[in-house]
TrEMBL record:
SUPFAM superfamilies: P-loop containing nucleoside triphosphate hydrolases. InterPro entries: DNA_helicase_UvrD/REP, P-loop_NTPase, UvrD-like_ATP-bd. GO terms for biological process: recombinational repair. One of its GO terms (molecular function) is DNA binding. Residues 211-530 form the UvrD-like helicase ATP-binding domain. It comes from Rubellimicrobium mesophilum DSM 19309. This is DNA 3'-5' helicase II. ATP binds at A232, G233, P234, G235, S236, G237, K238, T239. Keywords: ATP-binding, Helicase, Hydrolase, Nucleotide-binding. The lineage of its organism: Bacteria, Pseudomonadati, Pseudomonadota, Alphaproteobacteria, Rhodobacterales. It holds the Pfam family UvrD-helicase.
Amino acid sequence: MTSESALALGPPTPDVPGDGSISAIADLVRRIVNARRGLSRTEVVSWVSQFVDDPDSVEAAARVGGVIDALCELKDIGYGTMRGEPVLVALPERRIALPDGTVVALGDHGTLVGTGCERLFPEVAGGATESLVEVLASFDEPVPLSGHRALEPIGRWTGDDPMPAALRRALSLGGAFDPVDQKWSMSEENASFLNEWFNLKTSDPSSQVAEPDEGQMRVAHAPAGSRIIVEAGPGSGKTHVACERVISLVQDEGLAPSRILLLSFTRIAVAEIRDRIGRRLHDMPNAAALQIRTFDSFAARLLAVSGVYAAGGHDASIRAATRLMRSDNPLVADAIGLLEHVVIDEAQDLVGDRKEMCEALLALLDPSCGITVFGDFAQSIYGYQHRGAEGSTLLAEIAKHADVTCDQLECDHRTRTKALKEMFRSVRETLKDDPVGSRDGYFRIREQICTAAVENDVTRFAVHASTTGGLILTRSRRGLFTAAEQMRAVGRSFRLRLPDRPPRVEAWIGALLGGLPSATRMSQNDFRSIYEALSPAPWRNLDECWEILLDLDASGREDISVGNIAEGLADPPLELLSDHEGSSGPLLSTIHAIKGREAERVMLLLARAPYGDQVNWAEEARTLYVGATRASTELRTGWINPRKFYTTGEPERFWAARPDHRLMEIGLEGDLVDWTEFVRSSHVVDEVNLISNIWRAANDEPRAAAYLDAESRLVLRVGDHDGTAIGCLSDSFVDLMQSLRKAEPESALPEVVAGIPVVGATTVVVPGRSGEAPSLALMPLLGGFASIPR
Ligand SMILES: Nc1ncnc2c1ncn2[C@@H]1O[C@H](COP(=O)(O)OP(=O)(O)OP(=O)(O)O)[C@@H](O)[C@H]1O
């Protein structure tokens, strides 16, 4: 077809507006492309331009060209060839559901956008073929737009750099977008969705100090020597008050920070508490001496100062610390006798070894030492893991002590909707009335939770617009792996929190300072030269990195020392710590691993209810309650059908059988030998070189494999068996693997363990030899499943 015959199509019919608006141009483009096969872009531009104001102007052609490009970019129309020449062609219809509930049509839909509307794509009634999440995920990764303001519902691109293609597409779909003037308007819901999709930050609520309510005031400002149990529901501010209590003990009661001990469960919880208290007490000279620790790090410190070494991981250290505190050791008794106040958070989950350790600690305290214990019986979800534990959490035990008074916090500060507030309260009542639990009771609670949800029974959560941010929670680890797989399958970015993983401290520190002697000092200029030589470059800029290092060094000097930084990282600040893989998107976690956290939006994935005689229905119900009460604004429930896995080892890990191999979960803490042991092996010639190899592997995220060496060790390498060595599988991992293969104790190891995903790297602190300060290194982080030959 020639341009003449294209033009012969004539002027647009009266129902096709020719007002030069974006929507009118888009309609005209679609109309000519659908009606006439084989038109080139130039022919379409020239036909459409005749219907816009001042058709001969360069602007008219540019405007029409811009709209054609936008339509092509979103596959509304496309390019084909005719007789070897590129031509514009019609494409099949698609209907896309937007986060605000509207559906827009793309492709050959025969619907006009309509006069006065600036949309490129018409809004249509009826069902969608895909969601905006699927469309955006299929293009590419979200582009970080840091540096630009958050997207307002009405706005214009003000960046100096060109608008990223991903944003252009998202705006074209999400609302009215003018691709030439780069202006947009869209609904609040769609704007807030895009802000999350592009990881644009809104204000940080944690930096605002909340005014305590009456109950919180009572607890926070109780006399230093009081012994109180604070039993209160989700969102009542227990963690918030735990911080206020410590601040008040220092500021109002004049306690020396070093005489206050606060214990909580996770490193992240501890880092958050330290961060909050640190910000409020920043002008107190000794605030850094506050002992804010996890139960595990408290045990490790106690053993270290007493010169006791306990092999065998965290649980063994906890048991050794308990024995030590019960052993009449004068050094330990003195150290603990100095404490003037102990705060324990999340006491409802203290069972088994950790509970016994806390009891041993409390028994050693001076009678004048105060105690504040926070917990919520309705959120107790760890009973099933421990023998005889039901009903005997630390919370329940301490409540029996004669010298302890009980207090409560009544207000719920988390929820933003009436339905959630009511559910938080009513389910707690139900749990209180039926502590033993039953199948019927469990289903009643499930029902109550669903009533408070804004949407239930979501089956395709991975493409649901609400899962751009917030939490996606599963009851089991099997569910979590399945959910992660579903997200991966549709190309979504997400963050994944798995229990029992090594701590993750930002890798650039180890990449830049790892392998250097602890006595190394560095000026800002020295640092600049190693920073600029690092490839790939760290995601934090040079000045930011230097500021962080000066803070960690804490010497007040203008240069840094590797030893000081390593010491500073013994208790890493919150901003350098992460407890998940991935850097953007919603956080996927089991309910067990998310306690104490909250999010505006929660997608609680339900599976078929448990069955059998062994089900602890009360605990199942409490677990659902913990999951549902993480939401402050929008709770949704969805469905997941967890894949089958077998389990092995302690802590439990998954494995699955395949015809000629087994898949075994890898990446748990202790799966690789530590840095000191690895560098002693013949595979490491130069530590600095090793570190740069690990840094590259962490950034490329390749699959690695472990190859058998001459000394019967399985050495982790990138590439083939001559590839770069970046680590070595530990004996405990190898033993577990051999037992899974049903191999005899002394039988040969496999030649290769393949398919091991490298998911990142972490900075590690390397203890110094006798009397020396510690130094730094970098270790790879592994994830997913290794393939083990039968
Ligand atoms: N007095 C207050 N005024 C306003 N907001 C508050 C107040 N106290 C706490 N909050 C906020 O309420 C939310 C819940 O607080 P927090 O996480 O401390 O509750 P919690 O009792 O520990 O919850 P959970 O038992 O679920 O872990 C947080 O966002 C916190 O900042």
